[in-house]
Design goal:
- The longest helix is centred in the middle third of the chain and has 27 residues.
- The protein has 13 helices and 19 strands.
- The chain is α+β, with helices and mostly antiparallel strands.
- Helix 5 packs parallel to helix 10 and helix 6 packs parallel to helix 11.
- It is elongated, with a radius of gyration of 33 Å.
- Helix content is about 30%, strand content about 25%.
- Strands 11, 12, 13, 16, 17, 18 and 19 form a 7-stranded antiparallel sheet that branches.
């Protein structure tokens, strides 16, 4: 982190906004960023946001064009004032005070915020500002494919077929001249800052002259809007019900944005900037697991092959870098889980096969006919097989989750000679799903806040992975 702060101070000097002595005294806070690093800078000249470009972004982002767009958006009243920029991507803007960075969750929880976002996009599109770049969907897809080829990166299975299927869309969009207006083109939820009264838009790296309805459709996808909030968005942006043509382009762009931003995500992974489907940094989702078992056993009966086991089990599982995963809400309750308890198991096995005939050599060796039944677990004709197990995890033994359960399995085999020696098998599986006494209890340890949901029968488990996809960010 100190290296980040040093880079930020050098960036302030490069922008000519602070002298070296002044830069050493400013307060710097890391705000995040995916492909880029973003900082809040507080000093004698006020509060500003500094953006340092990410590695490899020069391959697909023209920083001069971005600076022109950012200043134009500020003139349109939808983006913060730009203080200074450099051709290699450093940018300093005025900080928006008392503003919340939006997310898909916060948008869907607040329809009024969705309406403010729609109004902000409409204000940009109607501003009359001109950007120095033409955002053309299929041309950008072709360009991104070239970049991936140069990086020796492949596209996901099925992508070429999906792209080929989109040729009809390309022809439909090219059939008539579409309006070209100043557009953001990358309306990720986190690129919107809401004060509660006004919605600001930031991050103009991918902006250009484009069909304005792209912004509306892509925003709906990025924010994962519910159908109700999509109606709020369209009403706010269009000022009423869209025409059939406008609605058709809106639907098309909702589908097509995935084709583009999937390639963008692959480029980020190739450049070492991993992101998930909606632009959140993945890091490297990992599972750290520490387990210890101690077991003892005792034979109860050799004749009936009965044995009992007593096992102590300790297991500590920690999940890291899971906030980017689409199933994070399922994983978070178990992100820190510790089990400590005992398992008692009893097994009895009397399965035998009594249809085996004794050979002449057997009779000579034994001197007489003996019991023809022999132990056979794979093809029994009589006998039974019983297993019973009781598990308990106790907070008094250091567990963060408490539970106990019982499960058993009983198999019985019997051969009926009158039915041409047909063997019948029966199976019963009695079990206790969970203890009613623990139903309402939640155990936790002070060093593991948030852990300790009651584990149901068999425990809780989940898994997942992060794949490249849409999502950019400051």
């Amino acid at each position: 982190m100190n290296a980040d702060f040093d880079d930020a101070r050098r960036g302030l000097q490069s922008l000519g906004f602070y002298t070296q002595a002044e830069a050493e005294g400013v307060e710097i806070e890391r705000l995040g960023g995916l492909t880029n690093r973003v900082f809040m800078v507080s000093g004698p000249r006020g509060r500003h946001v500094l953006r340092i470009p990410g590695n490899g972004t020069e391959a697909y982002i023209n920083r001069r064009v971005e600076a022109v767009a950012a200043r134009a958006a500020a003139r349109a009243g939808v983006s913060p004032e730009v203080i200074a920029t450099t051709d290699d991507g450093l940018m300093l803007t005025v900080a928006i005070e008392n503003a919340a960075t939006m997310t898909p969750e916060s948008f869907n929880a607040n329809p009024a915020a969705v309406a403010r976002a729609g109004a902000a996009l409409a204000a940009l599109h109607r501003s009359g500002e001109k950007f120095d770049f033409r955002f053309e969907l299929f041309s950008m897809i072709d360009e991104y494919l070239k970049i991936l080829k140069a990086k020796n990166s492949s596209v996901p299975e099925g992508y070429p077929q999906a792209l080929a299927s989109a040729e009809d869309v390309r022809r439909a969009l090219n059939a008539h001249a579409l309006p070209l207006l100043a557009c953001h083109c990358d309306p990720l939820s986190e690129n919107f800052l809401d004060t509660g009264e006004r919605m600001w838009i930031v991050d103009w790296e991918y902006s250009g002259m484009n069909d304005p309805i792209w912004d509306v459709g892509d925003f709906a996808v990025e924010a994962q809007l519910t159908p109700e909030n999509e109606r709020v968005l369209r009403a706010s942006y269009f000022g009423g019900t869209p025409t059939p043509g406008q609605l058709g382009r809106y639907v098309i762009y909702k589908a097509m944005c995935d084709l583009l931003w999937t390639l963008w995500g692959l480029i980020q992974h190739a450049d070492g900037n991993p992101v998930d489907e909606f632009g959140r940094e993945t890091g490297s989702p990992t599972i750290n697991r520490l387990a210890f078992n101690a077991e003892t056993s005792r034979t109860l009966s050799r004749k009936k092959r009965s044995i009992a086991f007593l096992r102590y089990r300790f297991e500590d599982v920690r999940l890291f870098n899971i906030n980017s995963l689409l199933i994070k809400d399922l994983l978070i309750p178990d992100a820190k889980t510790r089990i400590s308890g005992f398992t008692f198991t009893v097994a009895r096995d009397t399965r035998e096969n009594c249809s085996q005939k004794q050979s002449l050599l057997d009779l000579i060796a034994k001197g007489e006919a003996t019991d023809p039944c022999r132990y056979n677990a794979s093809d029994p004709t009589k006998g039974d097989f019983l297993t019973a197990e009781y598990n308990v995890s106790l907070p008094v033994l250091g567990a963060s989750v408490g539970f106990h359960k019982f499960q058993a399995s009983y198999n019985y085999y019997y051969t009926v000679g009158a039915l041409r020696k047909t063997t019948f098998a029966a199976r019963a599986i009695p079990f206790s799903p969970r203890s009613p006494s623990l139903e309402a209890r939640r155990f936790s340890q002070p060093e593991m806040p948030g852990a300790g949901p009651l584990i149901r029968t068999g425990g809780r488990g989940a898994g997942g992975c992060a794949s490249p996809g849409r999502g950019r960010g400051g």
